[in-house]
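Request:
Um, any thoughts?
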Amino acid sequence: MIRSRRSEPRALSLGLVLAMGTPFPAAVAAQDATATAAVEDAARERFSEGNLAYDLGEFDRSLKAFSEAYRLKPLPAFLFNIAQCHRQLNNPSRAAFFYRRYLALSQEEPANTDVVRELIAEMDTKARVQEEQRRERERFARDRDLQRAREQAALAEARANEARLAVSPAAAPEKNGASEALALQVPDASVKTEAPSSKPWTRRWYVWAGAGAVALLAGGAVWMATAPNPRDTTLGTVGR
């Protein structure tokens, strides 16, 4: 086989380029170690933030920090902390879920396994109570809405009946009969009462009759006063 001497330098140059472009195993390991250290530092920082927020009672922030730490480095211990945050936030179903994941993903049985199982039972009970309360609230809301709908329907029907009676011809005779009965009870304003007499007082008979009686009484009194033997005006006794 005949080989050209001119192709040998080119092959050597290509081999050097490939060798320089491929990293050595030690360099790759160093890069991986650096990246791993950076991730661990970030996870440790999130873990510290979560602990501080938990101590301050800021459970929302603590939950967020622990979740970010687990995404950076999925350690089962972070799941326990996440479950604790959900328990403090009154999310029993989520807390029970993360407690179970903590036990399931731990390579060895954790030292707090018994405590975690008690917490799971407690969270399951609270979750059932919450679910019953939620259903009761929904049932109450449905009954309330149904009652309101019935009241509105009854009110609409009553208004419709009133409107139908107002425009129905059959209601007219009853209305006329009621008007006639009312007219019988109330006197007609068109009938005029007897007006008082317009005669002058000098032409009224009772005026002259009264004047005559007064004159008669006065005349009798004068006669009795001037009579020679006036009568005794006192009543006599029984023995007299």
Q: What stands out?
A: The first helix runs from residue 7 to 21. Helices lie at 7-21, 25-55, 59-72, 76-88, 92-105, 113-167, 171-185, 205-226. The radius of gyration is 60 Å.
